[in-house]
Amino acid sequence: MPNLLGPGRAEALNGISFRLKLRQQPKAARACGFGDRDRRVIDPPPIVQLVVESSTMTDDEVRSYLRYESYVMNCSICDETGSKDASFMPEEYQHQRRLMGSLVGTPFVGQDDRGDEGCFFCFSDLSCRTPGAFRLKFTLIMIDPARAGAVRHFPILTETMSDVFHVYSAKEFPGMLPSSDLAKKLKEQGCIISIKKGNDRSKNARGQDELSEMDEDEGESSQGHRKRRTVRE
């Protein structure tokens, strides 16, 4: 792990801990099948917050690790128990993966809807090919740019699992939820995350899909092109 405190404070790193908190859980998705033309995202988009704690570091030292730019978070899909990886498809579709989209997230440091600064990873471009009940697994690593050329694999700092979410067929999908206050607040500060008004499919003829993505902001780029912005005190 990179020492951001300087050589005189290296021993303080012994008391640091990292954990992940799901600030926004995935709830539902419409299965997108095996083509890319009609892909719909998991709703609401998962938002993961990094929490750094230490009994041996000052608040400013802890904040330096929250604002570190070279964290990388990976998202994968598991069965509803969380014990089995569900990324791979049946043999006839073995060259495709169940989870699609931007599976790697980078940090966005800003204020949440309560005005507290935090380090967030937003996954607003995830889709699932098949119906079923699943969980998402989020894994965090910390890249040391000074050693990136010599180190092939950096260790996992921490990981967490989402609650169970359900993927529906087009006719059964209940519709999109309106965006949360947290998502709106992060977007106001420069985080690229889709903002939706939501819609209730129960009020429409089942099987009509055209409304499910209409409220997405125009011009949104994928998460892979998301720019990082830090809100300083």
Your description of this structure?
The strands form 3 sheets. Strands 2, 4, 6, 10, 11 and 12 form a 6-stranded mixed beta sheet that branches. A 4-stranded antiparallel beta sheet has the order 1-3-8-7. It has a two-stranded antiparallel sheet with strand order 5-9. The protein is globular, with a radius of gyration of 19 Å. The chain contains 2 helices and 12 strands. Residues 203-233 have low confidence and may be disordered. Strand 7 and strand 8 form a beta hairpin. By secondary structure, the protein is mainly beta. The chain has a single domain (7-172), classed as Immunoglobulin-like. The chain is 7% helix and 29% strand. One of its GO terms (cellular component) is nucleus. Residues 224-233 have a biased composition (Basic residues). It is found in: Nucleus. Residues 197-209 have a biased composition (Basic and acidic residues).
List the helices and strands and how they pair.
Blueprint: E1 16-24, E2 28-30, E3 47-54, H1 59-66, E4 71-79, E5 99-101, E6 104-105, E7 108-111, E8 117-122, E9 126-128, E10 132-142, E11 156-161, E12 165-168, H2 181-188
Parallel strand pairs: 2-12
Antiparallel strand pairs: 1-3, 3-8, 4-6, 4-10, 5-9, 7-8, 10-11, 10-12
Protein name: Spore development regulator vosA
Region (Disordered): 197-233
Subcellular location: Nucleus
Helix content bin: under 10%
This entry's quaternary arrangement is single chain
Kindly report the name of the CATH homologous superfamily: Velvet domain
Reported CATH architecture: Sandwich
Kindly provide the radius of gyration, computed on alpha-carbon positions and rounded to a whole number of angstroms.
19 Å
Instruction: Note poorly predicted spans.
Output: 203-233
Beginning-to-end CA distance, first to last residue: 26 Å
Number of strands: 12
